[in-house]
Amino acid sequence: MQTMPPALEVNDLTVAYRDKPVLWDVDLQVPTGVLMAVVGPNGAGKTTLIKSVMGLMQAAAGSVQVFGEPAGRQQVRRIGYVPQRTSVDWDFPTSVRDVVAMGRYNRGGLWRRTDRRDAERVARALATVDMEDLADRQINELSGGQQQRVFLARALVQDADLYLMDEPFQGVDAVTEQSMVSVLRRLQEQGRTVLAVHHDLRTAPVYFDWVALLNVRLIASGPMAAAFSECNLQETFGGLAPAWANPPATTAA
Amino acid sequence: MSSLEFEILVTAMTVSAACAVPGAYLVLRQMSMVADAISHTVLLGIVLAFLVVPLYGHPLMVFGASVMGVVTVLGIDLLKRTGLVREDAAIGITFPALFSLGVLLISLLARDAHLDEHMVFQGDLVYSVFQRLELADRGYGPMTLWKMAGIFLLNGALALRFHRELKIATFDPVLAATLGISPSLVHFGLVLMTSVTAVGAFDSVGSILVIGFMVVPPVTARLLTDSLARYLGLSILLGCASSLGGFWIARTVNGSVGGSISLVMGAMFVAVLLASPRRGLVADWRRRRRQRVEFAVRMLVIHLFQHRTLGPRTEENHAGHLEVHLGWSAEFSRRITELAEVRGLISRVDTHWLGLTSVGERQAEQALAG
After folding, report:
1. Which residues from chain B sit within 8 angstroms of residue A151, using beta carbons?
2. What is the ipTM of this complex?
């Protein structure tokens, strides 16, 4: 067994909105170097899980450890966060390049201006997500898929060890989705860990190698082949899922 | 222009510039009406400070006003967070309550020449320059000018020093938090800046017009540029330009300087709203008209293409029948036909019947292929 601590370890995490539990006693381990999809119906607490790890939401109980240390200000800096695209005001007067450069704002203190190394990193990240031609475009002129790619590029320049992504493929066309998936794969090859909220049950087993099935409580988590079973999906989605999902467990049977 | 008039003008421009800095960020953060609330409730802070140290212009006033600005915003946020009152209503409840308390206290307790209700509501640029800064029996010009110049420099320095924090906390508070920048610290920093600026501008433009000084130039600037740096610079510049124009009007009609400046700001906004090259309504209207014409030409080409097999002279390609088939007016049909002819897309079989040229056919094929 590996001695390396998991990238993310969540123990007994309960988050509630007043007396309504959003997450109910969740225990989740995300080993370093996996691509993990978080799937579950609407209102399952997927975004809440990510926000709790980031310290953006108060937990009623439980603990979060990032690379073996309690999640605090220091550990949060090792996390790259890709929020839902609708979480910001895209009419803000700035360019694509500038938004990506924001991912470098924590390097070397805030006094420092963006230097050439930062500029190179930003340019490389934009090339990685096929956005270099749009670098100087105003962000209010972008399509939904382009906005999503800007967020991905911004996460890349953060040089994080753990990436938390909230529906990174939302509003993205099929071609872009493929190129974004290859970016995720490259992150994995570099030894980084990705945890992404994902909605499409058909592509989940194709894009990711680990999965967490969440519906307020954690139904199952682990390697895709073991956890993404028809039985678990049924429990997560209440019998609706298998009609349109194609879990590998059923195709093998 | 007399030296007094010159001082009034320079003071007016300084007030505009000082107000534009917090104003630009308030507009981006959709806090324009919060600024209105703050500019009124700081009055209560001023009066309370005045009760402790009855001296107009005492530093305690700035402190009292700042505290009250924060209290106002906290009050609005708290009301909003109950989920029972929406933000606009929360502002409408919080600010008159605190403001009226201030007004009441003035009328009851502080019957002083330097702090009366008229000044609070309106302020007076002309009157304000009569208060001189004097040190060791030497005069150094109007007090308000020095005060507002100081506030402008402070605002400008803070905006430059914290431009990354302001930008990121405004655009994406969540990312700011993960990078170790506290969005609420930035939020209340801006509230403090707004409060201090509002207090500073009190005796020259009053609590009502100061919202115009803060909000109108940035909103106008936003219509003219998409770059944050240019937006900030332009906000200050437009504020100063309005002051110049407003001062000239006030001088000509012998009226209120602050009022004239606000009026010019409003007129400038309307002018830019109409005429801004990219975002303006006129440009938008022309773009739409052009698009309509372009689309109509394409439609005509495709119409002729779809019916080309019927023969050279059918009802479908009769110039006079476009009105029926495409639902166009006779005038519009004539214009579109002429345009398509000039571009070499269509030709006339004879006077009445239209046919596609080879260029037109190619274009139709391309358009239909998507």
Report:
1. none
2. 0.83
| Same structural domain, B207 and B300 | no
- Interface probe with A: pick from B25, B160, B167, B178, most Cβ of A within 10 Å: B178
Suggest the residue from B158, B171, B181, B231 to mutate for an interface test with chain A (most A CBs closer than 10 A).
B171
Mean pLDDT over each residue of chain A, to the nearest integer: 86
**pLDDT band (50, 70, 90) for residue B272:** very high
Q: Do A76 and B174 touch (CB under 8 A)?
A: no
Q: Are residues B205 and B299 in the same domain?
A: no
B28 shares its domain with B159: yes
Residues from chain A that touch B170, judged by Cβ atoms under 8 A, are 92
Closest-CA distance, B52 to chain A, in angstroms, reads 40
Q: What share of chain B is helix, strand, coil (3-state, %, to 5)?
A: 75, 5, 20
pLDDT at A249 over 60: no
Q: Say yes or no: B323 and B180 in one domain.
A: no
Query: Cβ of A138 and B164 within 8 Å?
Result: no
Is B255 within the bounds of a domain? Answer: no
In chain A, what residues touch B222 (CB-CB under 8 Å)?
93
What sign results for the dihedral spanned by CA atoms A83, A86, A92, A97?
A: positive
Domain count, chain B: 2
Q: Which residue of A has its CA nearest to B30?
A: A89
Give the per-residue pLDDT at A112. 58
* Strand residues in chain B grouped as ranges (E): 132-135, 138-142, 346-348, 354-356
Q: Is the pLDDT of residue A215 over 50?
A: yes
Mean pLDDT of B12-30: 95
Q: Which domain holds residue B79?
A: 3-211
pLDDT of residue A107: 60
Report yes or no on B247 lying in a domain: no
CATH code for the domain in which residue B300 is found: 1.10.10.10
Looking at the domain assignment, is residue B252 inside a domain?
no
The SS3 call for residue A39 is strand
Return the pLDDT at B90.
Answer: 93
What pLDDT sits at residue B274? 95
Residue B349 maps to a domain: yes
Q: Are residues B188 and B306 in the same domain?
A: no
Same domain, B192 and B303: no
Residues B140, B31, single domain; the answer is yes
* Contact criterion met (CB below 8 Å) for A71 and A64: yes
CB–CB of A106 and B180 under 8 A? yes
Cα–Cα dist B353/B333, whole Å: 13
C-alpha distances in angstroms, B120 versus A46, A97, B97, B210?
Answer: 52, 46, 16, 11
Enumerate the domain spans of chain A. Answer: 1-78+161-174+190-253, 90-159
pLDDT tens digit sequence for B177-222: 888 888 899 999 999 999 999 988 887 888 888 999 999 999 999 9
pLDDT higher than 60, residue B353: yes
As assigned by CATH, the class of the A1-78+161-174+190-253 domain is alpha beta
pLDDT value of residue B17? 96
CATH assignment of the domain containing B206: 1.10.3470.10
- Mention every residue, 6+ apart, whose C-beta is less than 8 A from residue A248: A205, A224, A225, A228
Strand order in the sheet with A20-30: A20-30, A8-17, A61-66, A69-70
pLDDT at residue A197, as a whole number: 95
* pLDDT, position B122: 64
Distances (CA, A) of A177 to A129, A143, A180, A183, B102: 10, 14, 5, 10, 59
